[in-house]
Specification:
84% of the residues lie in helices and 3% in strands. By secondary structure, the chain is mostly helical. The longest helix is centred in the middle third of the chain and has 32 residues. 52% of the residues are buried.
């Protein structure tokens, strides 16, 4: 049964990612903005829906370790595995805006999580501050999108026209996101069941298996975007998702129910910070992620996951 769920989930993930990438590219054409802006917001937040669902549900059931472990694990998986695989498929050009602004914000969000892990709890007031932070980020992205669209109108006019009508574009994005969620849910159900029967702790499940499962929408979307030479969507999706994971997901989970942490260690948060810094450093070397850098990211994540699972 678990094998069947995995196969069905994989098929749904590919189909959902294909629809989402096509719809997102057309959405950027219709809005007159760069694909990067759509990748950072619509695609990133949409593909983070599984992380949101898992972390909020875990918070309601009193499993703070799964909530935080899921977020930290997903962020490490997003960079180590997803960007690693995407760069192997095709070296990814990294937009200067990501290097100068969004990646530092991503690193800052992880830095803020360090004292939370040290304290062993996330009170409600911290959750409210995190939610305010993601609202401010989205508002700033919207403002910059309007400014960039006005400045780049001449360049955007040279781009090919949108292929689909507004209803079709919105439908493709909605169906793509829904299909991605269904596909990832099938994977998570099997993986978590196996892990629990094997006696693996909740924190390790959240940091590895659940994190990997809930990151499957990002993996499918970024991999398909890389294949289609849409580097802005591939990279923007991950950076935006990582920002959303810390600020929105931890924020909402803690606002609903303050989180108590037992098994999530400072090491886990530092590893997530290390991956975040690595992607910024790699991106500054030539303005792209090379295949070699993709291999290094993958190997680093495999080493971390292996150590965590064996601990």
């Amino acid at each position: 049964m678990d094998v069947l769920l995995t196969l069905v989930g994989a098929a749904l993930l590919y189909l959902g990612a294909e629809a989402l990438v096509r719809g997102s590219v057309d959405l950027s054409l219709r809005l007159g903005v760069e694909p990067l802006m759509v990748g950072l917001t619509v695609v990133a937040f949409g593909t983070s829906a599984p992380e949101m669902a898992v972390s909020v549900l875990a918070a309601l059931e009193g499993h703070g370790d799964i909530s935080i472990g899921n977020v930290l694990g997903s962020n490490s998986f997003n960079i180590g595995v997803i960007l690693g695989i995407s760069a192997l498929i095709r070296p990814l050009r990294v937009h200067l805006k990501l290097i100068r602004r969004d990646m530092p914000i991503m690193i800052g969000a992880v830095l803020v999580s360090l004292p939370i892990v040290l304290a062993g709890r996330v009170p409600r007031w911290v959750g409210v501050l995190f939610v305010a932070g993601i609202v401010a980020y989205v508002m700033e992205e919207a403002r910059k999108a309007r400014e960039d669209a006005a400045e780049a109108s001449a360049v955007l006019a040279l781009r090919p026209p949108a292929q689909y009508s507004w209803p079709v574009v919105i439908g493709m994005i909605a169906v793509g996101l829904a299909t991605l969620v269904l596909g990832s849910k099938a994977f998570v159900a099997g993986a978590v069941g196996i892990a629990r029967r094997a006696g693996i702790s909740e924190a390790v499940i959240g940091l590895t298996l659940v994190a990997a499962g809930t990151s499957l929408p990002e993996l499918a979307t970024s991999a398909v975007a890389a294949l289609k030479k849409q580097a802005d969507i591939a990279v923007g999706n991950i950076v935006g998702s990582n920002i959303f994971n810390v600020l929105a997901i931890v924020g909402c989970a803690a606002t609903i129910a303050p989180l108590a942490l037992r098994d999530v260690s400072l090491t886990d948060a530092i590893v997530t910070l290390g991956f975040s810094v690595c992607i910024l450093v790699f991106s500054r070397t030539g303005g792209k992620l090379s295949r070699l850098e993709g291999v290094l990211l993958l190997l680093a994540y495999i080493a971390y996951a292996s150590l965590r699972l064996s601990s």
